[in-house]
Amino acid sequence: MHLADLIERYQEALLQKYAGRLLPEQRRAIAAILRCRTSAAGEILWQCNDCNHSLLNPRPCGHRSCPRCQNHEVTQWLARQRRKLLPVEYFMVTFTLPAELRTLTWRHQKKVYDLLMAAAAGILKTFALNDDQLSGEIGMTSVLHSHSRRLDYHPHCHIVIPGGVVNRSRRQWKKVKGKYLFNGQALAKVFRARMLQALQEAGLPVPDTPIKWIVQCQSVGRGQPALEYLSKYLYRGVISEKQILTDRNGEVTFRYIESKSGNPKTRTLPGADFLWLVLQHVLPKGFRRVRDYGFLHGNAKRLLQLVQMTLKVVIDSFKAQEKPVLPCPRCTAPLQFVQAFRPGWLSG
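Now predict its structure.
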């Protein structure tokens, strides 16, 4: 079931109920998803060099909230991250904003999201430098999520960390021993203090929050499972169209995996409420939801190479995949790109 079909069906009801809350980014997402892979998005001309057959295909919208787009970008990102994988234990640290800050975050999304990611990365850098066993610089890949598995508004930040640090002055790699990195409760105490201070310095009205915040720090094995988990949510929006099960009697049912039990669950909502549930996770324009730090940063390639040499990492097998080949419908030979046309080019 396509999200665009549901938008067409329930857009009027959505506007009647949520027009006052829809942000410009969400309206742009609606427009992009509706025109995706239609003539309204423009067309691409393909040519077969074997049989000279020509083909016009509607263009994808390319919007990062569209579940039908960005599959190749996800594959490319995962391939790039695989080239950075190290033969060490990996950890995932999750920093979650308390429920009391969700209204503030919604009203100032870009600013609070930036503060969240900066605070989380800064805390982990500090813990790694001050740790008696490590005392060095860590590498991190951070991804912002605004949703729970039920698609409720639930801002949090996942950070994947290879288990080791670099001492720049000594040009030395030090490996984390065992499957323990940092204490989650200790991280949470510092997270609360730094985040509240950052919000106050930004001039935002900070409500009362609980004394205990939540930070989870867990081992995730050799890194590949964590990367694959994150890759699902990078470019394809918050829900896969395969998760949308039914649209009956004005209600939409979708499937999700419950985090505690790991069991599949379903949730049913009126069509307009379902669309709002999805659209509230459209990120501000230009916001970078994926960020690398430390020796995994793009400007630290030499430092990463030093770590890879020390650990005798072989990266030749991790090559970025090419875009899937579009076969000719007549002879199955690969079609060649000729030209992209803007919407309305025929009438012009």
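DSSP finds nine helices and 13 strands in the chain.
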